[in-house]
TrEMBL record, chains A, B:
Official protein name in the record: phosphoserine transaminase
The EC number(s) this enzyme carries: 2.6.1.52
Amino-acid biosynthesis as UniProt keyword: yes
Domain Aminotransferase class V: 7-328
UniProt similarity note: Belongs to the class-V pyridoxal-phosphate-dependent aminotransferase family. SerC subfamily.
Pathway(s) where this gene product acts: Amino-acid biosynthesis; L-serine biosynthesis; L-serine from 3-phospho-D-glycerate: step 2/3
GO annotation terms (biological process): glycine biosynthetic process, by transamination of glyoxylate; L-serine biosynthetic process; pyridoxine biosynthetic process
Reaction(s) the record says it catalyses: O-phospho-L-serine + 2-oxoglutarate = 3-phosphooxypyruvate + L-glutamate; 4-(phosphooxy)-L-threonine + 2-oxoglutarate = (R)-3-hydroxy-2-oxo-4-phosphooxybutanoate + L-glutamate
InterPro entries reported in the protein's UniProt record: Aminotrans_V_dom, Pser_aminoTfrase, PyrdxlP-dep_Trfase, PyrdxlP-dep_Trfase_major, PyrdxlP-dep_Trfase_small
Cofactors, names only: pyridoxal 5'-phosphate
GO MF term set: alanine-glyoxylate transaminase activity; L-serine-pyruvate transaminase activity; O-phospho-L-serine:2-oxoglutarate aminotransferase activity
Length: 360, 360
């Protein structure tokens, strides 16, 4: 039996990926030199599609890394000057905070319990902070950071750099990039691609920060510092021989999504999330793990299992019916499960999921 | 017409790769969590195959990076204490030297002209150097560093760490890893795989060095420092969501090569190199770019084009007949071409290549 993955780590591949991989092999994408015109054209196509898909402003740069995890390191090296502020309410936001500390920066940690979101009236960003790290969608807890709150922070702190982790909300989240300075994601979640590629978008202000740090003697990192990445990206190239098939697939899947239209992709996501949340609400043994609606994610849906029933049983039951979901993260394993809602998960698949949930 | 790549960058895929990719897709390799048992089993299989293929001693660790380029950065962060010695005779050895300088280390540069190798009587390694970087096969010039010279350096400098760049000589080179401290390579050359994965092998001595640097307050790098990589590898895992298909393919191609037997793989490489060098010798308009036989590579064969004939014409002629080769590197573009001799390049392909060369 074919199993469909509604997991929040890597997830089901976008349904066109297999065919694009065949085509990539046919076109020798992994074989031609990464210094060739064929590679440059491919790279250029991918960046143009991603730019269109995410409505990336012209003054934004786009480079590739090995993962979004790598971007944390590169941001810590290139963009945090002295002190960074981190909104921490899950594993991924925690990890970026740890990176910033490891790189010797002062940090401000604005923390919430797992499952809770932030409210702009509840916190005060330190005035001496020069960098704000926001996890737009916490994959570990299913808590989102509302866009209007991000924009409000920007208004109140126009001089600080704001970087957005959109790992599990791309391509759903429709963020106005003119109101933040950097956004990054990896491709194995919402884009439905094999892992091994990070996408890092940043504006001129980030570059200026890196320049001034470099001028002051900061070591920005070796082969993947902002300047080396950019110098290559300007020629549609990468500093090292890259995951060319990954770059190719990113272009092709973005093109597929653009053909479907982003408004459709987004409204389908909202529709599927609505169906699933309604099913949770109606089920006597299930509840939302994220109680506050305005911070409840539409792409990673976390469910609390009630009345002594077992998340493990719930997962086995679904898997026995061909649907694989994720356990709760870390301490929440005992009481929660996570279900992803990405473009590759069709409405039909969601109908099936909900029928199964209703019958549990 | 299907074109075969005998290029020295990425090269022709190993002939089983396409089929392994299909199987990987069928087995959901890119879909299952990198924290799952299925992933751990796959990771464990790959490391066991690579260990057998390269005869890796038990006291060696094995971790994955994004590229061999990344390994330069990680070595500079984790293994060079104060001063590193670099044998520089081409673009890749130059780049590692630049990395070490960028990371603020003192360096000793032992340099030779492009196309020339090193002779152990000609140089003196500084006594205060604590790290020796050797490019076993300079992809840019086709110059190899003979293994007996590496072993001699080890005997004379038992206390220094020795790291071997084997990017374009794996899996051909049969190095005794007990006589060096680290070896690394990427997969898109001799292994015939899509790029996007580096393999880093290192022994206990490297780890001890990293420990003492860390104890002295050195920042070893964020998510890919030696300890984070190792802590994960010990559980058959990676710090970030990895290029899982790459790790899977590495195991499968290693298994394929082991089935063919490494002695056969190696003797075929020697045989094909011998044929090609003989053809060069007999051709009035061609010559070896590497004059000294003992340092002439068997895996990247660099040819000097003589008598005013054009390397570009030579390359177009071969490409017109279905064989793609590489230009000379950097300044040598005007007079040289490079041809790779990897396991995926069959004897039959080499017969065809040599017939074409004879007829030029």
């Amino acid at each position: 039996m074919k199993k469909f993955h509604l997991t929040a780590g890597p997830s089901e591949l976008y349904f066109t990926v297999e065919q694009h991989i065949q085509q990539a092999l046919k076109e020798n994408v992994a074989v031609v030199s990464h210094r060739s015109k064929a590679f440059q054209d491919m790279f250029g196509f991918t960046t143009s599609q991603v730019r269109e898909m995410l409505n990336v402003p012209d003054n934004y740069y786009m480079v590739f890394t090995g993962s979004a995890t790598e971007v944390w390191e590169r941001l810590a090296q290139n963009c945090i000057s002295k002190k960074s502020t981190h909104f921490v309410n899950g594993s991924f936001s925690t990890r970026f905070h740890q990176f910033a500390e490891a790189w010797g920066h002062q940090t401000q940690k604005i923390e919430k319990e797992l499952g809770e979101g932030f409210n702009t009236n509840d916190f005060q960003i330190d005035t001496d902070s020069d960098f704000i790290a926001i996890t737009q969608n916490e994959t570990s807890t299913g808590v989102q950071f509302p866009l209007e709150d991000i924009y409000k922070i920007r208004e109140e702190h126009p001089d600080k750099l704001i970087a957005i982790d959109a790992v599990s909300s791309i391509p759903f989240v429709d963020i106005d990039l003119t109101k933040v300075d950097s956004m990054y994601f990896s491709v194995q979640k919402g884009m439905g691609m094999p892992a091994g590629l990070g996408v890092w978008l940043f504006n001129e202000r980030c570059l200026e920060r890196a320049k001034s740090l470099k001028a002051n003697g900061r070591l920005l990192g070796g082969y993947h510092d902002m300047f080396t990445l950019l110098k290559n990206a300007e020629k549609n190239m990468t500093p090292a021989t890259p995951n060319a098939i990954g770059i190719y697939l990113l272009g092709k899947v973005s093109e597929d999504l653009l053909r479907r239209k982003m408004e459709i992709v987004r409204s389908e996501t909202v529709y599927k999330a609505g169906m699933l949340y309604a099913a949770i609400e109606e089920h006597k043994d299930l509840d939302y793990a994220v109680k506050e609606e305005r911070v409840r994610s539409k792409t990673v849906i976390v469910i609390e299992i009630l009345n002594g029933r077992s998340p493990k049983d719930f997962m086995s039951y679904l898997e026995g019916n061909g649907l694989v979901i994720s356990s709760g993260y870390g301490p929440n394993k005992a009481t929660q499960v996570r279900i992803s809602n990405f473009p590759t998960h069709s409405k039909e698949l969601y109908f099936q999921l909900i029928d199964l949930i209703n019958a549990w």
